[in-house]
Amino acid sequence: MDAFIDGLMSKMTIEEKIGQLNLVTAGEATTGSVVSTDVESKIKAGNIGGIFSMTSPARIRKAQELAVKESRLKIPIIFGMDVIHGYKTIFPIPLGLAATWDMPLIQKTARVAAVEASADGLNWTFSPMVDISRDARWGRISEGSGEDTYLSSRIAREMVIGYQGDDLSKNNTLMACVKHFALYGAAESGRDYNTTDMSLHRMYNEYLPPYKAALDAGAMSVMTSFNDINGVPASANHWLLTDLLRKDWKFNGLVVTDYTAVNELIDHGLGDLQKVSELSLKAGVDMDMVGEGFLTTLKKSLDEGKVSEDDINRACRFVLEAKYRLGLFEDPFKYCNEDRAKKEILTVEHLKLAREAAGKSFVLLKNENNSLPLKKQGTVAVIGPLANTGANMPGTWSVSADLNNTQSLVEAMRSVLGNKVNIVTHLGANLTDDPALQERSTMFGRTIPRDDRAPEEIIADAVKVSQEADVIIAALGESSEMSGESSSRTDLNIPESQKRLLEALVKTGKPVVLVLFAGRPMTLTWENEHVPAILNVWFGGTETGKAVADVLFGDVNPSGKLPATFPQNVGQLPMYYSQKNTGRPLAKDAWFQKFRSNYLDVNNEPLYPFGYGLSYTNFEYGAIKLDKSSISKTDQIKVTVSVKNNGNFDGEEVVQLYLQDLVGSQTRPVKELKGFQKIFLEKGKSKEVEFILKDEDLRFYNQKLEFVSEPGKFKVYVGTNSRDVQEAEFELMD
Ligand code: NOJ
């Protein structure tokens, strides 16, 4: 590769080198207000290195032909896209996928996404998104794996392996792009694109590991984030992109900015376009997404001595290397095969996997008196603004989904249940009373029809329809575009219009099941008190509706567990289980104590803790056993617990292991996830679950940023979620 690229670069003019640093859109599926122009002539002039959001082998072939036939050096183009949770076969939103805690399954979904996207001409995906987020106001919490460092790191790895397979040059793999580097999920106040200010201690221990895990798994590209980090925006942050990423982590792949992130450095206050392009290149950015600051200013900066030819060569080399690794120099058309596009997209197997993944992502939050599963009989009323919208099922950031051919919940339930169950349905309430808010929340074709009558009239009609039913399913919550990019919220309740509907449905006295659509943790205090059964279905992708039917009617036993804490109210945010203790912790089980760390108006507990999720069956945990009470640094300790399915259904359980370092040179979280196992148990069966802990699991970054363990006592917690655990203690000896 090196010799080939040396040879090629020796023939390139400086303009051609700068041209390689330019990533443009083809005008489809843009994610900002700027759209690239004159793409065709720029390709011919060698001014484009990559194109994103262009699909179909025929169109990609045409663009590639321009590059390899009509540009001077015939350098192929790289084609990228946001393939986030599936390509045409859409899987649950990433937060939902994380709720499966099922690593092989997650890897398979990424594999299928790669097969489909590459069959349609693509070779690069802007995924995985591994930003830790602990503030559910942030709309993009939906696009990541939630709040936990360990779980997110494990998932990051699976996604990269799924996309890249064992060989990036195969025609059915995609280059992964880990994003958004870095700390984008810690935006202040949960407002998108907002500032992040974070100690190194927190960065290294809690926020950086998932990016590192993705790179360790071989991800060959990184996307810089929009946010400011401790005073220097990520896209111009030399410490981040060079000292940490290149020097410490030894990353040797491609660094691309987010959409117009170079230009946005002007608004961050770093200078004009020429200045910010210079800063960004010198910080370590290789490719400029859409803004064309590099294309239009770097030559001038070179002539003025502000950037060096070495800076440009470095960036150009990383772009060319990515193309080389993808095998594009060997065969620029290797991804352009119409036959594959016809045969390998939306296959029966892919849809089957999507249905399985959706069913496994759902989290049963409440199931009083075993209201679920339902019997396949009688009349069921499916009421609510999410009942009859196919377009909202794929969930946010599914740009290539075929919205017109996605079944709504009601359509899917009818197709699964046939004539065994009579389904009646009604809108019941508008998504929100405020039409302008509804419009903002249903962009990109994710419409939900409105009824202009007074809310009481709509509710009265829905109640009338429900009177005929034996059970009411309330399909409520967020629309798909109420989460995702630029969709932050300050109120995490189900919108008022829908809440009133739910109250009226509960008042009918009939059994009510809340099927909650959500792109984030929501505040459900009222619902938890008054609704007998709550199934959180996030946005489950193409097969959402069928999977909901599978779970509601007992063909699938829910096994999802929350990857992010559900607070009682929005004022508790940011909220996460792995918090520090403070010097004035609340006494165990106390609601409030004066001069202790708490609130006057709400206790410190979440509504549903991290790792929480019910099943139709019951898992009984035996006593936790350690094979030793102390270990040395070269030793390991075995933790065992027996788990028994003593309920009436076969089912899956996620057995979770947390650690607490009791005394150290710096404060440590009250609990940190360090292991989990998803097990299947037939009813009546039990299993010994075993975890091995090593010194490496006890390590953390100390004040000098050394990754060390410290001798002393540790607690091990094992349980069904982060709250309901048993504990044991051991000591790490010097
Ligand atoms: C902006 C988003 O932040 C990023 O996640 C995405 O990959 C790019 N736009 C490209 O669409």
TrEMBL record:
GO molecular function, one term: hydrolase activity
Pfam families, per database record: Fn3-like, Glyco_hydro_3, Glyco_hydro_3_C
Residues making up the signal peptide according to the UniProt record: none
Swiss-Prot/TrEMBL keywords: Glycosidase, Hydrolase, Signal
Top enzyme category: hydrolase
Residue ranges constituting the Fibronectin type III-like domain according to the UniProt record: 653-722
Enzyme Commission identifier(s): 3.2.1.21
Catalytic reactions on record: Hydrolysis of terminal, non-reducing beta-D-glucosyl residues with release of beta-D-glucose
Family membership noted in the UniProt record: Belongs to the glycosyl hydrolase 3 family.
Official protein name in the record: beta-glucosidase
Source organism of the structure: Sphingobacterium mizutaii NBRC 14946 = DSM 11724
Lineage: Bacteria, Pseudomonadati, Bacteroidota, Sphingobacteriia, Sphingobacteriales
